[in-house]
Structure formats: C-alpha cells, structure tokens
Design goal:
The chain is of the alpha+beta class and about 140 residues long. The chain has a domain of about 100 residues. Helices cover about 45% and strands about 25% of the residues. Strands 2-1-4-3 form a 4-stranded antiparallel beta sheet. Helix 5 runs antiparallel to helix 6. The protein is globular. It starts with a strand and ends with a strand. The model has no long low-confidence stretch (mean pLDDT about 85). This is Formate hydrogenlyase maturation HycH family protein. InterPro entries: Formate_DH_maturation_HycH.
Length: about 140
C-alpha cells in the first residue's frame, strides 16, 4: 500500500443549480459569492503538489520544532487533512522560507511550490489549499 500527501488548490467555483436562476435573483447570487456564502456553490480542487508520505514527514520535520507552522502541517498525520487559507500565509511562508537551507533539493522544490501557492492565495484570498493523506 502506497501513501502520499496531495496539496489540492481551488481552481474554480460554480453554482450547482437544477433550475435557471431568475434574472432578478442573479445579483443576490453574485453578492453571496462575493462575501463568501456558499449557496449551492461547488469548489473545484486541482492537485498541485504530491509527495510520498514518508517524504512529507521528513519535509515537515525541517520546520522549526514546536513552531505553529510545524503544528499546522502535522495536522495531516494527525487528522488526515488540513486546509490552508489566507490566515496561514505569513505563518507558513516564513517557516518554509527559513527551512530552505536545511532541506534536500527535492524538499526545496516542494517548498518553493508551496510558497508559490501561498503567493496565489495572497493575490486572491478566495483560493485555498486542501492537503490530504491518501492511501492506495
């Protein structure tokens, strides 16, 4: 059985509607989306980073022991999944940037990919990451 950790990034949202929304209600739907209400909204996530389970554990071990960033990333082994959103940008960006000097070349590639995804979230706060442990 192989295990891996997959970072999936929000790629788009759409409204699940069986009936056409009346024109007079369309602005309410747009407003609801703008303020973050999920009225039948489906998030489409796309895998953006995948790493083997043991390698993920070694990678997050490069973060400062006992730090909030490491505890956040340790949520994957503890709970099976975590969400990374705009509230985690500074915490994780600083921690992974500081850890680059202690990382293997492969870990550095993962960190730079994650830093790029955090930058995407900074640019568009509606974006988030779902990080999940997957077992085959």
């Amino acid at each position: 059985m192989s295990e891996q950790v997959v970072f999936s990034q929000l790629s788009r949202k759409f409204i699940d509607e069986n009936d056409a929304t009346p024109a007079e209600a369309q602005q309410v739907v747009y407003y609801s989306l703008a303020i973050g209400h999920h009225l039948g909204v489906i998030d489409c996530l796309e895998a953006a980073l995948t790493c083997p389970w043991e390698d993920y554990l070694a990678w997050i071990a490069t973060l400062e022991e006992g730090s909030a960033a490491r505890r956040k990333m340790e949520g994957v082994p503890k709970y099976g999944e975590i969400v990374i959103d705009a509230s985690h940008i500074s915490l994780l960006a600083n921690a992974f940037d500081a850890a680059l000097c202690r990382q293997t070349p492969a870990q550095q590639v993962w960190s730079k990919t994650l830093l790029s995804m955090l930058h995407d979230i900074h640019q568009e706060s509606a974006i988030y990451l779902m990080v999940r442990r997957l077992r085959d």
